[in-house]
Write a structure and sequence with these properties.
The chain is mainly alpha-helical. It has six helices and no strands.
């Protein structure tokens, strides 16, 4: 139950963060519109400064938009019942990691692999037959799944 409560808190946190980012993006967009509509008076230094400010605001808005996309994706995973599960190994992502980065999609081990080998995710999902044939462990040596470890969220009636 503690994990479920933590996931509910994270859901509220994601919704709050999404609202904040949407407001911030709206304000940034309004600011960019105002900069575009303002008279271009002043010397070349003023024009260069304004251009730099526009570029910085545009870059920050892009970062916010990326975070918003990740949050929307996390909220969708919550609805689907897959939030908190690693997209690579299907293991549980620790609550501490989700508290630090609520839209995490990988457990720490898989994230480290991705950072160490940037094409790791592509190789993992490529579906090539070589990967199946060259499996690191044989079917006999693979871990058995204990059904009591699986959490199932059934819709309430």
């Amino acid at each position: 139950m503690a994990r479920r409560d933590a996931l509910l808190r994270l859901h509220k946190s994601l919704l709050s963060r999404r609202t904040d980012i949407r407001k911030k993006l709206s304000d940034e967009l309004d600011g960019l519109r105002n900069l575009k509509g303002a008279d271009a008076t002043g010397d070349t230094a003023d024009v260069a400064f304004e251009s730099g400010s526009e570029e910085m605001a545009s870059q920050l808005a892009e970062l916010d938009a990326r975070e918003l996309h990740q949050i929307d994706r996390a909220l969708l995973r919550l609805k689907q019942g897959t939030y908190g599960l690693c997209e690579a190994c299907n293991g549980k992502i620790p609550i501490g990691r989700l508290n630090a980065l609520p839209y995490s999609t990988l457990c720490i081990a898989c994230q480290r692999e991705l950072e160490k080998y940037p094409d790791w995710a592509d190789r993992r999902s490529s579906g090539s037959w070589e990967k199946v044939y060259d499996a690191a462990t044989s079917l006999e040596d693979q871990r058995e799944v204990d059904l009591s470890e699986i959490e199932i969220d059934l819709p309430s009636r």
